[in-house]
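// run 5 | inverse folding | seed 20
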């Protein structure tokens, strides 16, 4: 894999340049930039259509959104990652509090999205309209972030693959089915013979590259949302479809990811699956409510 951009550049071009920029960090920044561009386009489109106050300074508003969504989203990514370590939280809180548990992209997405809605609502934009504006950009940012996870080999991989690659996938490289993540950024696995440098580990057994699967699916879902945004006139409907999409996608992929699981009401689920169920409920409930109301009003 490519823990830094230097590794990625060498793989793509053969140039042996030292670029110590972390690949995951670069794709996180790229995800924010892509969301910024898409949000700006949708804000301008909604403004031209009269759906939001025309007096808003879109550039200034987007700069503020980028700052606060970035800061609070980063805090959410840290928090949800820490909350997955429930054992130390309840049994050894003095160890849990200062320990770094990594980042959860889902946490960053959720906290950033809530911040986005709050800021736009305070500028006179109804929550449903703000949610529609943000939906395509959030899906695109999630797809880019997941691609960064895969390329860096940051640990968001799946369970060990025991089944052989199916015949319908014969056209694809073996790592699409079972990846070993050589040179992963976490340095997990066994030593790569003859390797020199800081990242010389590879997983001994092939695992599902779940972050790659999510990236592919979410890029496709982004284009679906992007195509629907002009066809849906009911405020909030695009967001509800987004919530349904992201909820179902994440709920299903968790079954083949290595993620801590929790027992709730007799069900063994991951933290992300519990959040996904909430997203699915919001999506289905919102779609049902919006489609059964007669007025095309701006909710909240």
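// decoded
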């Amino acid at each position: 894999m490519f823990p830094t951009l230097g590794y990625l550049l060498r793989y793509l071009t053969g140039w042996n340049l030292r670029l110590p920029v972390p690949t995951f960090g670069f794709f996180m920044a790229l995800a924010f930039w892509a969301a910024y561009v898409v949000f700006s386009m949708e804000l301008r489109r909604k403004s031209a259509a009269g759906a939001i106050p025309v007096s808003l300074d879109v550039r200034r508003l987007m700069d503020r959104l980028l700052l606060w969504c970035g800061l609070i989203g980063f805090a959410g990514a840290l928090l949800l990652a820490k909350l997955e370590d429930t054992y130390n939280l309840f049994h050894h809180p003095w160890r849990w509090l200062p320990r770094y548990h990594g980042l959860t992209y889902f946490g960053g997405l959720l906290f950033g999205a809530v911040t986005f809605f709050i800021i736009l609502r305070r500028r006179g934009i109804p929550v449903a309209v703000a949610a529609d504006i943000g939906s395509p950009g959030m899906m695109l940012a999630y797809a880019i972030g997941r691609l960064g996870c895969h390329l860096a080999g940051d640990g968001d991989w799946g369970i060990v693959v025991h089944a052989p690659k199916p015949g319908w996938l014969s056209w694809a490289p073996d790592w699409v089915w079972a990846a070993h993540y050589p040179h992963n950024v976490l340095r997990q696995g066994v030593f790569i013979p003859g390797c020199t440098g800081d990242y010389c580990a590879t997983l001994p057994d092939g695992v599902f590259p779940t972050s790659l699967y999510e990236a592919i699916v979410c890029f496709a879902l982004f284009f679906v949302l992007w195509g629907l945004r002009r066809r849906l006139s009911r405020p909030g409907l695009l967001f509800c479809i987004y919530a349904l999409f992201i909820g179902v996608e994440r709920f299903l992929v968790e079954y083949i990811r290595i993620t801590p699981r929790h027992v709730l009401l007799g069900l063994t689920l991951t933290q992300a699956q519990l959040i996904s169920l909430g997203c699915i409920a919001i999506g289905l409930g919102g779609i049902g409510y919006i489609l059964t109301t007669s007025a095309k009003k701006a909710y909240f």
